[in-house]
UniProtKB/TrEMBL annotation:
It comes from Alexandrium catenella (Red tide dinoflagellate). This is assimilatory sulfite reductase (NADPH). It catalyses: hydrogen sulfide + 3 NADP(+) + 3 H2O = sulfite + 3 NADPH + 4 H(+). Keywords: 4Fe-4S, Heme, Iron, Iron-sulfur, Metal-binding, NADP, Oxidoreductase. Its cofactor is [4Fe-4S] cluster; siroheme. Residues 118-275 form the Flavodoxin-like domain. One of its GO terms (biological process) is sulfate assimilation. GO terms for cellular component: sulfite reductase complex (NADPH). Its EC number is 1.8.1.2. It is an enzyme of class 1 (oxidoreductase). GO terms for molecular function: 4 iron, 4 sulfur cluster binding; FMN binding; heme binding; metal ion binding; sulfite reductase (ferredoxin) activity; sulfite reductase (NADPH) activity. The keyword Iron-sulfur applies.
Length: 865
């Protein structure tokens, strides 16, 4: 009805109204939409309106809209009131001069009120422009605009043909790639550009304003490329709209990520002017759940009833593939993220259907260990409910991708039946605790003892809420019984977390020298095992690591942890609790970009943090004990431990268990039921563990049959053995570029180079992520790549081999061919000029390719590129 020449009707099945509507729809020359409902389904439903809307009736002076019943939805009543007023105005001559009579003047004012409409269109990849657009929509609705008079959607969801009839359009436009429109705006831009000649002069009655988002330093501070590409789509749209005759309602505003509060600074200034011009500046636009985020995370956490929210009900809503915004925050605490397939956004937008939403589900697996039976269960689940693959993550566990909303509960129940869960695998809590997986670093007895402390730390820091079980596991009579006994949903006390949990995620790792496979200094809290004479003396404690940052935001940076002391084994879980509660109480809850423990440590200093930990612990930490890391890669091939059991490290490229590797590992798991297991590694590979002598030969045969890489010959090269990447596109909403799908291709080209240089078997740590959130720990690679735009990366060199030093920016915004061109001569020199046992990262620093990154606070000032 909003778009005019469309026939629309709603009726109950098998009624006379339905028959008449079908006949009228069949004879209507334009598009027709019919909604037919079972009478029982709509009986007593106040939202149901039986009606017919036929534009042909207007030609004979009849109303186009006819309601067949007395119940009319509020939204339809508002629409009809506006339509009737506009029709009345159209039939009268309303003067605009001094001779306008009172009736005409009143009618003119009525027209002004009735035409108080605004269309808000956005295009965004990461959601920032969408948030701006929805903030405008909320303010307008709160300021007196009828809900139906405020339309908010993506550029591509808007029919370009309707643009000349729009009284006011507000555009919020982000920037993608090198000055390109994001995926959900390219279609609109293409159509408007192609039809420019047709629209020239046709937009004279259209008022518009544009808000553009970008980063003025994204392609280098002061460079011509940054100048040209800054908010380029917004500037191009503004220029085109003006050239087509549209009237600029307000000067174009710009949100620059280089400002103090990033794009929020410019948006605050621009929206103040906009709201004043619209007459909605005197109200608080806090309503409108359909417009997405309206509350900060800290408020959302307090209002979720200990992480319950409305998830239980919303996951059962089959009308949409997504959950409400606030529930997307809640579900993280239960080990899941809502995502969508970005490869399909543009196509689905053209079809007018919602994004291809799905859920990533991460299993809680301290130390990365599972039984053979649990491996088989996860394989069955990934085939039944997910995309048919298992993803081994840098957090030493599995992730499932592509789980549809309707299958989330069944997936969680399947995981639970295998004696696992996803509690606290994500969210602002202590997440999955890592532990060194290399079986050759200590005796089996020592490994089991340290794994015991890993479990103790993890279990001690788990949230206590029963929300997970209520949402995903309890249903039917079981849930009814709980409600009956307790009277209502209980609110458990959270002795560690309180109502607001932590300011941000909290990551913990346990390392066993000489292996630093867990990258212990990258974590919020770390424990370095000190072993002497076959006895575990205790742990050195590290605090303050974290690698995420924001491109060109110099208030953000990666940081490696400081060693603050030593604790006895029995104190480890209490030390972790103390570190956690210090962060709970002193972490920044006003700015999530400054909320990680690394900034708390940077702001207050190691001495303050140690003192706070000691106060809560009730005793002093002892001085740090000596230790030495020698490597951080995985063990590949077979190794026998002192208990007579065998263990075999297998390479799983980028951690994606699929195709022949998936089949081979399932066959091995079937052989090992009741006697063996698996350990995920922090480098995204897997260790087949606890293999009895009698089973070794058959496991070896299966590895060969299914071509599972597990030796120097089958793992191809030192680069491939040490490559790591995050998932990135197409499912990660934050990714600027490819990572998992691309790094193996890049490594393939680099392997040709190192082969020619005689470096095929030389271990070089190479890592890539699609954005600077750094899930693949790229800033600790000897070679690191962080995505900036499709096919474009910042390149970093100089991280050390054992994970004690961050790398340094070497080249900005490089493409694949440039990467090969830059690295080829460095590999050549490394092959010919390296010192004995010198590693690639150290060589790069010694030869002046980059300076050594001594502290994360120098991340932005040290590079000279």
């Amino acid at each position: 009805m909003e778009y005019g020449e469309t026939f629309a009707a709603a009726a109950e099945l098998r009624s006379t109204e339905a028959t008449a509507a079908l006949k009228d729809a069949a004879s209507f020359e334009g598009p027709a939409v019919l909604l037919l409902a079972e009478p029982q389904a709509v009986q007593g439903d106040d939202q149901w309106t039986t009606f017919r809307y036929d534009p042909r009736r207007e030609a004979s002076g009849e109303a186009a809209f006819v309601a067949n019943g007395s119940r009319i939805r509020r939204e339809i009543e508002a629409f009809l009131a506006r339509e009737n007023l506009l029709t009345l105005v159209a039939k009268k001559s309303v003067g605009t001069g001094a001779d306008t009579d009172a009736e005409g003047g009143d009618l003119g004012q009525g027209l002004a009120d009735a035409s108080k409409t605004v269309t808000i269109l956005y295009t965004s990849d990461t959601g920032h422009a969408e948030e701006c657009a929805k903030a405008v929509a909320r303010q307008c609705r709160g300021g007196g605009y009828a809900s139906s008079a405020v339309r908010c959607g993506t550029l591509d969801s808007f029919d370009v043909s309707a643009l000349p009839s729009e009284p006011l359009v507000v555009f919020c436009v982000a920037t993608a790639g090198k000055g390109e429109f994001p995926g959900n705006g390219r279609g609109f831009w293409g159509k408007l550009s192609d039809r420019a000649a047709e629209f020239t002069g046709a937009l004279g009655s259209v008022k518009y304003t544009v808000f553009g988002l970008g980063d003025s330093h994204y392609w280098g501070k002061g460079t011509e490329e940054s100048k040209v590409n800054f908010a380029k789509p917004a500037r191009e749209l503004d220029t085109l709209m003006e050239s087509l005759g549209a009237q600029r309602f307000l000067p174009t505003g710009y949100g620059d990520d280089q400002d103090v509060d990033q794009y929020h600074t410019g948006f605050g200034e621009w929206k103040s002017q906009l709201f004043s011009r619209l007459g909605v500046d005197k109200v608080d636009g806090a309503g409108g759940d359909d417009d997405g985020p309206v509350k900060p995370d800290e408020v959302i956490k307090t209002e979720t009833q200990q992480l319950r929210g409305s998830l239980k009900e919303m996951l059962d809503d089959v009308g949409t593939g997504q959950v409400p915004f606030q529930d997307t925050k809640v579900i993280k605490f239960h080990g899941s993220y809502q995502q969508d397939d970005r490869d399909l956004r543009e196509e689905r937008s053209k079809l007018g259907i919602e994004n291809a939403f799905s859920f990533m589900i991460r299993v809680r697996l301290p130390g990365g260990y599972c039984t053979a039976e649990q491996w088989l269960a996860m394989d069955d689940i990934c085939g039944r409910y997910a995309n048919g693959t298992l993803k081994i993550t840098t957090r030493q566990t599995w992730q499932l991708h592509g789980v549809l909303k309707r299958d989330v509960k069944n997936t969680m129940r399947g995981i639970n039946r295998a004696c696992m869960d996803t509690i606290a695998a994500c969210g602002d809590v202590c997440r999955n605790v890592l532990c060194t997986s290399n079986p050759s670093v200590c005796s089996r007895e020592m490994m089991e003892e340290i794994m015991g402390h890993t479990y103790a730390i993890h279990d001690h820091c788990l949230p206590r809420t029963g929300a997970y079980h209520e949402i995903f596991l309890m249903h039917g009579e079981e849930m009814a019984e709980k409600s009956q006994v307790l009277g209502s949903t209980p609110i458990e006390e959270e002795p560690l977390y309180g109502l607001t949990y932590l300011p941000r995620k909290f990551k913990v790792a346990v390392a066993i020298p000489p292996s630093n496979d867990v990258d212990v200094f990258a974590h919020c809290v770390g424990f370095i095992a000190i072993i002497e004479g076959g006895k575990l003396l205790g742990f050195n404690v590290t605090v303050g690591g974290g690698l995420g940052f924001t491109h060109n935001n110099q208030k953000t940076f990666p940081r490696l942890a400081d060693v603050i002391g030593f604790c006895k084994p029995s104190d480890a879980k209490y030390v972790c609790e103390a570190c956690l509660t210090v962060q709970r109480d002193f972490g920044d809850r006003t700015n999530r970009k400054h909320a990680r423990i690394k900034y708390t440590m940077e702001d207050y200093g190691p001495d303050f943090y140690r003192e706070q930990v000691e106060i809560r612990l009730g005793k002093k930490l002892e001085p740090e004990r000596p230790y030495k890391f020698e490597h951080r890669g995985d063990q590949f091939g077979w190794v026998k431990t002192n208990d007579g059991l065998w263990h075999c490290g297998c390479l799983v490229p980028i951690g994606r268990v699929k195709e022949n590797v998936r089949t081979g590992l399932v066959k091995i798991a079937e052989e090992l039921k009741g006697c063996g297991g698996f350990r995920m590694t922090c480098n995204q590979s897997v260790l087949i563990t606890e293999v009895p002598e009698a089973k070794k030969a058959v496991v070896e045969q299966l590895l060969a049959e299914y071509k599972v890489p597990h030796s120097e010959e089958t793992t191809v090269s030192g680069l491939r053995r040490n490559m790591m990447a995050c998932v990135a596109l197409p499912t990660c909403p934050l990714a600027f570029a490819e990572a998992e799908r691309y790094l193996p291709t890049l490594v393939g080209r680099l392997e040709s180079v190192v082969e020619r240089c005689g470096l095929r078997e030389t271990d070089i740590v190479i890592r890539m992520t699609g954005c600077p959130n750094s899930c693949g720990r790229p800033s600790m690679g000897e070679i690191g790549f962080i995505g900036k735009a499709p096919g474009t990366y910042n390149m970093y060199l100089g991280g050390d081999f054992v994970g004690r030093r961050l790398n340094t920016l070497f080249a900005e915004s490089v493409t694949e061919d440039q990467i090969i061109e830059l690295l080829t001569p460095i590999f050549g020199r490394f092959a010919n000029e390296r010192e004995k046992d010198e590693k690639f990262g150290d060589f790069c620093i010694r030869n002046g390719y980059v300076k050594a990154m001594t502290a994360g606070r120098h991340w932005w000032t040290l590079p000279n590129v």
